[in-house]
Amino acid sequence: MLRLAGNLTTKGASAFRICRGLEAAGASLSVTSSREHMVYSLDCLRDDFEGVIEYLINVTTAPDFRPWELSDLSQRIQIDKAVADQSPQIGVIEKLHEAAYKNALSNSLYCPDHMEGKISVDALHQFFANNYTSSRMALVGLGVSHAALRKAGEQFSGLSGAGAPGAKAVYRGGELRVQSGGGLVHALMACEGAVTGSAEANAFSVLQRLLGAGPHVKRGSNVTSRLSQGIAKATAQPFDATAFSATYSDSGLFGVYVISQADSAREVINAAVAQLTAVAEGKLTEEDLTRAKNQLKVDYLMSLESSEGLLEELGVQVISSGSYSSPESVTQTIDSLTASDVLKAAKKFVESKKTMSSCGHLANTPFVDEL
What we know:
There is one protein chain. The chain is of the alpha+beta class. It folds into 2 domains: 15-159, Cytochrome Bc1 Complex, Chain A, domain 1; 174-370, CATH 3.30.830.10. The chain is built from 14 helices and 7 strands. It has a 5-stranded mixed sheet, sandwiched between helices. A hairpin with a 4-residue loop joins strand 5 and strand 6. The longest helix is centred in the last third of the chain and has 18 residues, at 286-303. The radius of gyration is 23 Å and the shape is globular. It starts with 14 loop residues before the first helix and ends in an 11-residue tail after the last strand.
C-alpha cells in the first residue's frame, strides 16, 4: 500500500504538484520494496536538485493518506496482485517464506485478498509513525555534493526517535503445496541460511554460484552448471534448475529451485538435492571453488555499475550495519573464503530442517520429509 501510495498527496504538496513538478524538471521518483526495506529514489539533473528534492522529502516525511485517494489505489493493488499471481516463480518464493517462518518474514510482499480495501488511514499513519523515523532511515546520494545532501537531510529532523522495534523472524520449516493445472511443476526447497553481511552468507553465495545461479549467456541455458549436469545424468526429461539464496538482517534461506515436467518431478528434485549432498560430502575441487568465487565477484561488481544498484547497495549497507564496505573490501572477503566454509554451508542444508513450496500438477512431486 505504501509503495503504491508514493505519488499521492502529502501535507506539503498535492499529487498534481508532485507529478507536474517532476515532469517539468525531467525528473523521476520511484518506490521499490523488499521484505525489510522501502527505497525511494529520485533521479534528476544536478542543477535541479534543490528544486525537486522537496518532493522526495514530502513523500517520505509528510504523507497525508487522503481516504478518497487511497480508495483509488484498489485497482492498482488488484493489478499488482494479479501480475504476481501469474508468475509461478513469485508464487513459490512467497509460499516458501510463508512456510519457513512463524512471523515477520512470512508475510507476503503483496496485499492479501482479505485485506484489500480494509487498510484504514489510521493504520497507515500509525505504521508510518512507528517505522519512518530518523534512526531507521538513510539518505544517500550519487552525483550530488555533500553540502547539498546534508542540507536536504536536515529537513528530516522532525522524524526523530527510534521507532517501534522490528519483529524478529522465527524459522520453523514446513511445506506448502498449491495444486494447479498444466504439465509443469515449480518446486523450491530450502534450509535456514545466513544473515546479511556475515561470513556464512558469503559462503552460501559462493555455494550458490558453485551449483549454478542462472545462465551466464544472454537468453542461453544453464547447461554448464553443476546442478544441470547432475540432473541431466539422472533424467532425460527437460528441466531447469538453479540455486536459490536470500539473506535478511536476522535470518536467510538457501536451497534449490527446479522446474520440470510433472511426470519427472520426483527424479529431478531428488537429483538436485543429491548435488548438494555431494558437495557436503567433500566433492569440491579448488578449480570449482575459484570459478564460483570469480562468478560471485563479477555478479557483485556488475550490480554496482548502474546508479540504481549502487544507490540501493549504499542505503541498505548503511541501514543494516551503520557503515559502508567498499567493493575492494567485499571482494577481499570473498577471496578469503575457504573450501571448508563452503562445505560447512552445504552440510547445513543437508542436516538442518528444510522448507519446501511447490505448485503445479503435484501427483509425482515428493513431500519435504521424503527428500
